[in-house]
Amino acid sequence: MRIKQLEYLEAVIETGSINEAAKRLYLTQPSLSSAIKDLEREMGITIFQRSNSGARLTADGREFMNYAKQILDQVRLLDDRFKHQQALHQSFAVSAQHYAFVVNAFVELIKEINSPTYKFTLRETETENIFNDLRAFKSELGVLYINNFNRRIINKLLTENGLKFTPLFVAKPHVFLSRYNPLAKRQSISLDDLTELPYLSFEQGENNSFYFSEEIQSTLSHKKEIKVSDRATIFNLMVGLNGYTISSGIISSKLNDDKIVAIPLELDDPITIGIAQHQYTVPSQLSLKFIQLLKNHIRDYGFKIIGEENERV
Fold this sequence. Notes:
Keywords: DNA-binding, Transcription, Transcription regulation. With 313 residues, this protein is an alpha/beta fold. It folds into 3 domains: 3-83, Arc Repressor Mutant, subunit A, CATH 1.10.10.10; 90-170 and 271-301, Periplasmic binding protein-like II (D-Maltodextrin-Binding Protein, domain 2, 3-Layer(aba) Sandwich), CATH 3.40.190.10; 173-264, D-Maltodextrin-Binding Protein, domain 2, CATH 3.40.190. The protein is 38% helix and 22% strand. The chain has helices at 3-15, 18-25, 29-43, 59-83, 100-112, 127-135, 151-160, 231-241, 285-300; strands at 48-51, 54-57, 89-96, 117-124, 141-146, 163-171, 174-178, 199-202, 225-228, 244-247, 260-264, 271-278. A 5-stranded mixed beta sheet has the order 4-3-5-12-6, with helices on both faces. Strand 1 and strand 2 form a beta hairpin. It is elongated. It starts with a helix and ends in a 13-residue tail after the last helix.
């Protein structure tokens, strides 16, 4: 097994195609295919399923790439440090649904690292992209929720992509709206109270499946509905149009959310928010630190971490 072969595999995963990977690597398609087949014979496994639509990792291929990615990361660190005489830089990437506590933990992580150089990535993205990023090893961790409605589909995707889901906490549904909205004075809000207000939700791309929605009760119809792609926009529309969305109940004043309030929704539909990550990858120290910071911020908002004894305030 050679490092070059692992780099070839990585290129195929990133492009999704042996032909496209060959172009990137300035190789012929037959020579790249031959190199991959040689590695498969040596390892005694099938790494890719090949079809007219491209190349996808098999279950063995996903496990193999978990280890290969760690090798490649270490090789690049060695190159940077000694061949190129660069100081070691730390790298970390996470993909998540749109949660303020994820941003808070990410900011805190960067503040705490002791490194003159680093390369960090936070992708607040569509639900399907979280799985795509993890599958392609673009991100080490994903943050998303599971509830009774989407559980079967999300668990299927976790299994297919060789991922595991670790629950962090359970949240009851809350309505997010402007503090200037008359409903903001309520102790709780029903779905009937929201009928005339614009419903705001996060766009989920081409595969805009109900099961990928970041908001519960995604199959309900609404008189007025607006889809957006980022948290700043959704908050602006809450203030500007008296719109609302449904989420976990965590709002961060540190991220300029002071004009938004969270009111309990009169609905029994809890969500479990947690971490998705590869089953066989040894977690990096940065990922472990990030998860700990997530837990700290979640506790600060008065939630119980699953497996711990703190009760919600």
